[in-house]
Amino acid sequence: MMGNRPLIALRDITQQYRSGSTRIKALGDVTLDIHAGEFVAIMGPSGSGKTTLMNIIGCLDRPSRGEYYYADQLVHESNPNVRARLRREEFGFVFQTYNLLPMATAQENVEMPAIYAGLRKRLRWARAEELLAGLGLSHRVGHYPSELSGGEQQRVAIARALMNGGGVLLADEPTGSVDSRSGSEIMAQLAALSERGRTIIVVSHDPSIARHAERRIELLDGRIMADTGSVSRSRISTAPEPEISPPRTQAPVLPLAENVRTALRSLRHNKFRTSLTLLGIVIGVFSVTAMLGLAEGVRREILDAISQLGGASITVLPALGEQRTLLTLDDAEAIRRRIPNLVSVTPEMSGGATLIAGARTESAQVTATTGRAMKDRGLALRQGVFFGKKHSERYAPVVILGGLLADNLFDQHVNPVGEHILLNDVPYQVIGVLKRSEARFAAFDLRARSVYVPLMTGAARLFRRDNLDMIGVMVSEGDQVRTAQEAIEALLRQRHGNAAFQIINQAEVRDVENNIRRILTLLLGGIGGISLVVAGIGVMNIMLASVAERTREIGLRMATGARPMDIRLQFVCEAVVVCVLGGAAGLLLLVGLGSVINSFGVTLVAFTTPILLTGLSCATLTGLVFGSAPAQRAADMPPVRALAAH
Ligand code: ADP
Ligand code: MG
Hints:
Blueprint: E1 8-19, E2 22-34, E3 39-43, H1 50-57, E4 65-70, E5 73-74, H2 80-89, E6 91-94, H3 106-116, H4 121-134, H5 150-163, E7 168-172, H6 180-195, E8 199-203, H7 207-210, E9 215-220, E10 223-227, H8 256-269, H9 271-307, E11 314-318, H10 329-338, E12 342-357, E13 360-369, H11 371-376, E14 381-384, H12 389-393, E15 398-401, H13 403-409, E16 420-423, E17 426-434, E18 450-454, H14 455-462, E19 470-475, H15 481-496, E20 501-505, H16 506-549, H17 551-559, H18 564-598, H19 609-635, H20 639-644
Parallel strand pairs: 3-8, 3-9, 6-7, 7-8, 13-18, 15-17
Antiparallel strand pairs: 1-2, 1-4, 4-5, 9-10, 11-19, 11-20, 12-13, 12-16, 12-19, 14-17, 15-18, 16-17
Bound molecules: adenosine-5'-diphosphate and magnesium ion (MG).
Adenosine-5'-diphosphate binds next to strand 1, strand 2 and helix 1.
């Protein structure tokens, strides 16, 4: 007998399964010691509890009752990470059905456990090759499982079990799926590994297979019926092991590159399904960014339109629904004289008019104002000059044309300045032409379609009235705006009684602008967001399908030492990879389509870097959000159940 303490000590281990209302006792009070270096065969008819016992020893399953000591340490059944560490560092599993990853080559299958152990790529690659060579598979390293015979697949599985050391090799009916000649070969290989000092536990119901083992344990109905007992071992040989020793550390988290590689492989494997999901994300990210871009574009246009209300700090308008006869030139004059700290007071009138230049006719908005007010409003001249005080005092019949209006009325090679036009059948001379703004919607560019006349010219000659449409007021200091606004309101109320006015200051205009931006962003972003959510649900759907489809793979990864965290990360990573790929494609589509539209001269949608970045982050976030539930489901699976899946 061996004098030292057992490596594996089971004390009264009981395993009960509940199926419906009946309870199945798969193991009943099994007490068993196995020493390091033993070669044990567990035998018994089908259903006697062999696999159940194996799974408990290998930390794939937890017993309902009893204690399990590994190297004198009680195996804490509550902590899945402790069991993952034991599986990774101490045990190597060989299954009846090989359980190789179909999408990976022999070498990739063998190296997989070392990924979770944190062995560097070059080292694990070399070790995998050496292990395969040791099992006579050097000529098969690059082959996929479907290209290998059953015996070869099982030898790949043995190499994988040895990858992280495999001090204890657990083989559950390893010869059950291969022909008898391959079966003997596999048993010979296990015997050779036993010679080199490994502890081997092999399950079989075939006595001719069990013959290879030194100790045979017989199970029947979950109880040990016979045990030939531990035999002392003196013949541990020193046959060479692979030069690269197995790793003993754990990667803190699996390297991202590894996860991305696995994700891409799985996505490639299901090309059709992947492309449908990608399409969803492409559309989702496209709509979000397009809508945000549209919101930004429209906001800029509206901003432009609002800024045409005036550069004035305060704008006085008759209230909506009031008679338009309310504000007069006298009101403007009163404001100018009675309110302190004002830089300027500009009365304005406006109305429609018909313009004729040669054979061309245009209708336009006419604004009677001062040159100063036009400058304050940020209008710039392309040609000519603004009005001066004299133009107004002399009721001079002169106009300044908006850029678009000038282009429509005159040929390109004609300089409109100095030319005469008919404004409501009265001749006026053009003294200036405004620059066209860079507005995206020409329809919004009111100024480009307007014509301007000096204030008094408008009052006396064109409109023949003295009621105003607006008074613009500039205040010298920003903090006096509120005081001036109140003073103007008091003055107007004194002059006009209870009639209502709208007095808007620029801060309020800015509020309006901010509100518009917020509403547009929420509204349009929300519309885009909905399609992204729909796409996200699509991602969740394929991730759930992927998890269901790869349940065995998950079980296998867990069996080789992957922690729940590693599994979760793998699937979240897969979801994020799909979403980022789809997102990038969506942005390309947006930029591509955008430049096609822009080539027609309309910049409908503003693409800014923040918007593109938002699109990409939305994609990543979609992956994280909709990938996490399927990933959690995968990580929560008990290893035995995952391995038993079909
Ligand atoms: P063996 O490997 O010796 O054929 P198992 O250990 O697989 O036997 O099963 C032992 C008994 O436990 C059988 O009666 C089997 O039907 C039952 N059993 C195994 N796994 C489960 C399970 N997950 N749920 C319910 N019963 C199970
Ligand atoms: Mg079994």
